[in-house]
């Protein structure tokens, strides 16, 4: 009886309005409401049973891809297929469209930094992991067409590789392709990363690495995140310094390629080298 009296004393009066002592640390949402991520609400089948509108969507999309290929599919659906591996069960179409709206196209999404990806609502580190995997596969496949091949006979493949690696990066990157006496590409290395408008380049490091690889020539490559591949005055000065350092050890600088979003500029072709 004393226990019941104690419990009765703890209960609020019948007319009192109460609220939690502390706010919950999470917010419950109904994923089937049109104004939240999944959207679209419920669908009812012929028996009247209700189900989320996106049930079966993943399997239908996979089947379309396997049977018809990627060509007829819009970019957001290809991105959906990728996001299936990162986010289970829920509708990922809104996230795919948000990523494309933020970064412009698939190239921009794949090349985006972790910091910027995580700023998009619904994206997490697993989404970023899937994007990095796709980027790694693309670079490895493009690189395979360049390494151990003679440069002049695979120049188009080399340019395509440079575009894949660098065209849509958000910061400048400096790469060097090292060639042997037969102009075969023996190594491809990133020797510097910088900011949106600058990358530090050390001519001594380029020459040192050429000696370590026993290279006879090099091709310099860097990108302009602004999208405009026009070489700057600093680019011209840096190229001259690298060429002088390499000349001292009998290594030739064949070219310096500046990669933009839609095109590239060759120092050799434009008479700058």
Strand and helix map with partners:
Blueprint lengths: L1 H9 L31 E3 L5 E3 L4 H12 L6 H9 L9 H11 L2 H6 L2 H5 L6 H20 L10 H12 L6 E7 L5 E9 L9 H11 L3 E7 L9 H15 L4 E8 L4 E3 L7
Keywords:
alpha+beta; 273 residues; two-stranded antiparallel ribbon; 40% helix; 5-stranded mixed β-sheet; elongated; 10 helices
The number of helical segments is 10
Mean pLDDT: 82
Q: What integer value in Å does the Rg equal?
A: 28 Å
Fraction of helical residues? 40-55%
Strand content: 5-15%
- Shape category: elongated
Category by helix and strand content:
alpha+beta
Q: Stretches where pLDDT falls below 50 for ≥5 residues?
A: 25-40
Q: Spatial order of the strands in the main sheet?
A: 4-3-5-6-7
Report the order of strands and helices: HEEHHHHHHHEEHEHEE
Describe the biggest sheet?
5 strands, mixed
Task: Compute the separation of the termini in Å.
Answer: 98 Å
Structure notes:
This protein is an alpha+beta fold. Helix content is 40%, strand content 15%. It is built from ten helices and seven strands. The protein has helices at residues 2-10, 57-68, 75-83, 93-103, 106-111, 114-118, 125-144, 155-166, 203-213, 233-247; strands at 42-44, 50-52, 173-179, 185-193, 217-223, 252-259, 264-266. The strands form two sheets. A five-stranded mixed β-sheet has the order 4-3-5-6-7, sandwiched between helices. It has a two-stranded antiparallel ribbon with strand order 1-2. Helix 3 (75-83) packs across helix 4, helix 7 (125-144) runs antiparallel to helix 8 (155-166) and helix 9 packs across helix 10 (233-247). The longest helix is centred in the middle third of the chain and has 20 residues, at 125-144. The radius of gyration is 28 Å and the shape is elongated. The chain starts with a helix and ends in a 7-residue tail after the last strand.
